[in-house]
């Protein structure tokens, strides 16, 4: 998706993000609980978008690295999840000083081609500690 399209989405989320949050609140809580039950202390939110899930993870006491390619979305994420470390990066090229305990990718895989999805899963495996949980959240609550 183009940067212009992400800017449009970011603008709409500034005014309508409350609706998306209301629709997905329970699903986000389930993701947080899934990671928490598996001992996740440091979490990678891949394709974090506007940062709402990053905020849920931070509020649950996790140290969060929020990653997105879009500067417009990352700006929103920085405001919504102020305790998260926000990084503008391509996940396939991302390098961390140490692996995270767990990772989640939510509401972004549908934006990718099959080969890009494969790259993302490989990156998540590389960036997550051995045996750490990798959670996927699709758009349906």
Automatic annotation (TrEMBL):
| Keywords noted in UniProt | Methyltransferase, Transferase
Claim: Transmembrane is one of the keywords in the record: no
Q: Which InterPro entries match?
A: Methyltransf_25, SAM-dependent_MTases_sf
List each copy of the Methyltransferase domain by range. 44-132
- For this entry, the protein name equals Type 11 methyltransferase
Gene Ontology biological process terms in this record: methylation
Q: Which residues cross the membrane?
A: none
What molecular function terms (GO) are annotated for this protein? Answer: methyltransferase activity
Asked if the Swiss-Prot or TrEMBL record annotates the protein with the keyword Transferase, the reply is yes
């Amino acid at each position: 998706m183009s940067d212009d399209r992400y800017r449009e989405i970011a603008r709409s989320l500034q005014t309508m993000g409350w609706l998306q949050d209301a629709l997905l609140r329970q699903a986000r809580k389930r993701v947080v609980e899934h990671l928490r039950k598996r001992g996740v202390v440091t979490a990678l939110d891949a394709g974090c978008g506007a940062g709402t899930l990053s905020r849920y993870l931070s509020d649950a006491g996790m140290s969060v690295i929020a990653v997105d390619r879009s500067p417009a979305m990352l700006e929103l994420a920085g405001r919504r999840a102020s305790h998260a470390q926000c990084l503008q990066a391509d996940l396939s090229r991302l390098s961390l000083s140490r692996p995270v305990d767990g990772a989640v990718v939510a509401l972004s895989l549908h934006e990718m081609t099959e080969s890009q999805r494969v790259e993302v899963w490989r990156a998540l495996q590389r960036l997550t500690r051995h045996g750490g949980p990798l959670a996927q959240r699709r758009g349906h609550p």
